[in-house]
Structure formats: structure tokens, C-alpha cells
Recover the amino acids of this structure.
């Protein structure tokens, strides 16, 4: 290889691309061309050019300048790219490209994958939940109730075991209502309670504190189960 070419190659900077992006760019709605365009943008930004010369990228990818600007607009619409305005040392405002939205999307995707894997290993499926609710309610679930259950799992990302615990609390309170169960789940969310073990721990802490306030010789006896804790007390006060 020519020595001058070798020096030029050695001086060229590398572009750092996360493997997560390469593995999941389709899942966040990017096409092959948009991924390449994104990498081209990042190559300039990594070299200190906050807002690259779009004409150079257009030349590299054999696009018109208008088509290159359209690609930037598409990436912004897909919430993987943003333009931030910052003030330089000279006091002048300048635009810079930011990939923060892209990283946030990838992080959210990782969290959703982890939650999905946790649900798969928990042994409690959506179908199991439907059966549990219908068994406790003594009737088939309505379409709206099924939709609510799906929203708890798919949108709110509640652990199926946590939903089962909320159902148990509602049954022990003899309140057969998904609205009531939803309020229990919201109450737990406010307390950052996300799984069965945390419910049991919080309930045990409450019982321990309650026992300290009771006379040492008093014991509460009951032949039927009662709710572990009045999770909705704040709604009643």
C-alpha cells in the first residue's frame, strides 16, 4: 500500500456504533437506508461537527441535497434524532444534532424485553390471569375487562404476579371490580411496589408496626382471611 495512503488511513477516525442499534434498528422503525444515513450523520458528529454539511452526506450516498434534508426530517419524525440549539463560547447560537432520543428508544426496548422475559419465566400467562379473574368473579370477563387486563400487562407493564396479588386483595375485601383492583395497582405503583415479594414485605412491615401499637396481651383472632393491608386508605381519608 502506498505510504501516503497508509498514513491517511491511520489518521482516519472510527465511528462507534452500538451493537444494540444494529440488532434492533428494525424494531424501532428504521429502514436500512435510514440506518446508513444515521451512521453517516454520527460519523460527522463524532468528529466534532455538531451539524454536518448535508451536501457531503448527500454526495456520499448519491442523494440530492433535498433528499438528504428529507431523510433528516424523517428521522426527526421517528423520534430518533433531534436538533438542539446551543450557545457557543462566542455567545452565538448554533444548531447541533442529538441522538439522545435514539438511545432512549433503545433503552426502553431493552426494558420491555426484560419485562417480557420476566413474565415468561414467572409461569403466569395472560390466559392464566383471565382464568383466575373469571374463577374469582364467578362469571366470564367482559371485552372491556379483558382489554383492561391487557393494558395492565402490555402498557402499564405490571408483573402478572402483582396483578394476581391485587386480585387477591380485592377478593378478600369482597370487592369484585377491576376499577378497585386498578386503584390497588396504582397505590402500589406510588409506593414503588413492583412484585409479589415487595407486597408481602410491605404488608409484613405494616403488621409489625400495628402490633407494636397493640397491647402485648391482645391477639386478634379470625376464622376467615382478611386483606393483608388497606392499600386504599389514602383514597378514603
Amino acid at each position: 500500500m502506498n505510504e501516503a495512503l497508509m498514513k491517511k488511513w491511520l489518521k482516519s477516525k472510527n465511528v462507534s456504533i452500538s451493537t444494540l442499534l444494529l440488532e434492533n434498528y428494525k424494531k424501532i422503525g428504521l429502514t436500512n437506508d435510514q440506518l446508513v444515513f444515521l451512521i453517516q450523520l454520527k460519523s460527522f458528529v463524532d468528529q466534532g461537527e455538531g451539524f454536518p454539511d448535508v451536501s457531503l452526506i448527500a454526495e456520499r450516498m448519491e442523494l440530492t441535497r433535498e433528499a438528504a434534508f428529507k431523510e433528516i426530517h424523517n428521522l426527526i419524525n421517528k423520534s430518533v434524532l433531534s436538533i438542539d440549539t446551543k450557545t457557543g463560547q462566542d455567545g452565538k447560537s448554533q444548531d447541533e444534532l442529538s441522538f439522545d432520543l435514539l438511545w432512549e428508544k433503545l433503552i426502553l426496548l431493552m426494558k420491555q424485553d426484560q419485562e417480557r422475559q420476566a413474565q415468561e419465566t414467572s409461569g403466569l400467562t395472560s390466559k392464566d390471569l383471565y382464568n383466575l379473574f373469571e374463577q374469582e368473579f364467578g362469571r366470564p370477563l367482559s371485552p372491556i375487562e379483558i382489554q383492561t387486563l391487557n393494558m395492565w400487562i402490555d402498557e402499564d407493564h405490571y408483573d402478572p404476579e402483582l396483578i394476581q396479588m391485587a386480585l387477591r386483595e380485592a377478593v378478600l375485601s369482597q370487592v369484585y371490580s377491576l376499577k378497585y383492583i386498578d386503584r390497588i395497582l396504582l397505590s402500589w405503583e406510588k409506593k414503588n411496589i413492583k412484585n409479589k415479594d415487595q407486597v408481602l414485605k410491605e404488608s409484613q412491615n405494616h403488621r409489625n408496626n400495628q402490633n407494636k401499637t397493640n397491647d402485648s396481651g391482645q391477639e386478634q383472632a379470625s376464622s376467615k382471611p382478611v386483606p393483608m393491608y388497606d392499600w386504599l386508605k389514602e383514597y378514603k381519608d
